[in-house]
Amino acid sequence: ESIGNATSQRNHTVVTEFVLLGLSHSRQVQLAFFVLFLLSYVAIVLGNLLIIVTIKADSCLTSAMYFLLCNLSFIDLCYASVTSPRMLSDLLSQRNTISFNGCMAQLFLLHFVGAAEMFLLTVMAYDRYIAICKPLHYMSIMSKPTCCRLVAACWVGGFVHSIVQTILTIHLPFCGPNKIDNYFCDVPPVIRLACTNIYVTELLMISNSGLISLACFLVLLVSYTVILVTIRSAKGRRKAFSTCTSHLTVVTMLFGTLSFMYLRPSSSYALDRDMVVSVFYTMVIPMLNPLIYSLRNAEVKDALRIVIRRKINKT
C-alpha cells in the first residue's frame, strides 16, 4: 500500500508554475505585437482616465448616468490592467512563466472585474429605463446613495462569481503538462491542464457563468423592450434608440465574446480563434468604450472640450 501511495505521489507531481505560450513564437511578430498592444494599453489608460477626469471636473455631469459611466471607465481600466502589463512584459521575455499562485490571482481578478462590468452594464440598462420611461421620478429613484449601493452590489456580485470560479479551479490536481495556450491565465485553458476528469467542474463553471449571463441578459432585454413599448411615437422611439445605442453596442460586444468563451465545453476550444477573442474582450472593448461613449454623447464631448481648453489655457 505504501508503495502504491508513493507511486501515486510521483505520478501527481504538484505544478508550481505555468508556461504562457503567448501570441506568437516569432521574435519579429512578438516585437510588432508589443508596439501594437503598448499603444492600445496607453489608449485604454488615457481614454478611460480622460472620461473619469472629465466627469469629475464638470459640475453639469452629475446625473446617475455619468456616475455609472465613470465607474465603467474605472472597471475598464482595471480589466485591461489585469492582463496587459504582464503580456507586454512577456512579449519582451524569452521564457514566459507565471507561478501557480500568480496564475490563480490573475484568474480571480479577471473574473472579478469582468463580472462586475457585466452587472454594471445591467444597472446602466435599468438607469436608461428609468430615464426614458419615468423621467419625472428619475432623480429620486436614481439618487446618489442608490447609485452607490448599486455599484457596490456589482462589485460584490463580481467577487462572489469570481471566488466560485477560482475555488473550483484551484482545487483541481495539476501534475503536468503546464503550458497554457494563451497569454494570460483564464479558466478554460487552465482547467484543460488538470490531471483528472473535469466534466463536473466544467459543468459547474458553465452553470455559474450561464446563470449570471442569463440574468443580466433578461434584465437588459426587459429594460429595452419596456422602453420601446412605452414610447408610442416613431420620433420618440428613434430618440430612445439613439440614447441607448452606445450602451447596446457595448453590451453586444461584451456579452457576445464572453458567451462565446465561457458557455461551451473546453474540448471545443481552438487556439488561434480563441486567442483572437481573448484579445478582443481584454484589449479592444476597454479601448473602444471611451470612444463609443464620448463620440455618442454630446454632453460628454462638450465637457471634454472644456477640460482640454482649460488645460491648454493653463499652459
Give a concise summary.
The chain is mostly helical and 315 residues long. The protein is built from eleven helices and three strands.
Task: Report on this structure.
By secondary structure, this protein is an all-alpha fold. It has one domain (19-314): Rhodopsin 7-helix transmembrane proteins (Rhopdopsin 7-helix transmembrane proteins). The protein has eleven helices and three strands. The termini are far apart. GO terms for molecular function: G protein-coupled receptor activity; olfactory receptor activity.
How many extended strands?
Answer: 3
Distance between the first and last residues' Cα: 79 Å
Strand order of the largest sheet: 2-1-3
String of helices and strands: HEHHEHHHEHHHHH
Q: Major β-sheet, in short? A: 3 strands, mixed
Helix count from the secondary structure assignment: 11
The dominant shape is globular
CATH topology: Rhopdopsin 7-helix transmembrane proteins
Oligomer state equals: single chain
| Fraction of helical residues | over 70%
The whole-number mean of residue pLDDT values reads: 82
Contiguous runs where pLDDT drops below 50 for at least 5 residues: 1-11
In angstroms, what is the radius of gyration? 22 Å
User: Could you say how many structural domains there are in total?
Assistant: 1
The CATH architecture can be given as Up-down Bundle
The name of the CATH superfamily reads: Rhodopsin 7-helix transmembrane proteins
User: Structural class, judged by helices and strands?
Assistant: mainly alpha
